From TrEMBL:
Species lineage: Bacteria, Bacillati, Bacillota, Bacilli, Bacillales
SMART domains the record matches: HTH_MERR (SM00422)
PANTHER family: HTH-TYPE TRANSCRIPTIONAL REGULATOR TNRA (PTHR30204:SF65), REDOX-CYCLING DRUG-SENSING TRANSCRIPTIONAL ACTIVATOR SOXR (PTHR30204)
UniProt xrefs under InterPro entries: DNA-bd_dom_put_sf, MerR-type_HTH_dom, MerR_fam
Keyword match Nucleus: no
Keyword terms: DNA-binding, Repressor, Transcription, Transcription regulation
Protein name: HTH-type transcriptional regulator TnrA
Pfam families per UniProt: MerR_1 (PF13411)
HTH merR-type domain segment(s): 13-81
Native organism: Sutcliffiella rhizosphaerae
Amino acid sequence: MAHEDHSLKERKVISIGTVRDLTGLSERQIRYYEERKLIFPARTGSGIRKYSFSDVERLMEIANQMEEGVQTHEIRREWKKKEKENENWKKQMLKGQIQAHFKQSRQ
């Protein structure tokens, strides 16, 4: 169920108008954050942007950081750093699981 909840959170089904209403950001601000590579909406065949609940959360986080005076390039750099740390952590966990599996199979 948790995995299903995660995938529902990632579904790109929310219009920019609804995102505007949920976040309090203007459509112009939302498009600006897309231009700055902080948010990545899906596009329909006719070019309409669609967002996920994760995108809405991310936009709210961006807005909070911007209010604190953090620049968009700093936000992007920090997120890339966190993504890299998470990827390294996942690799270490997988390595540990593989090692534990082979130790058990040899006993």
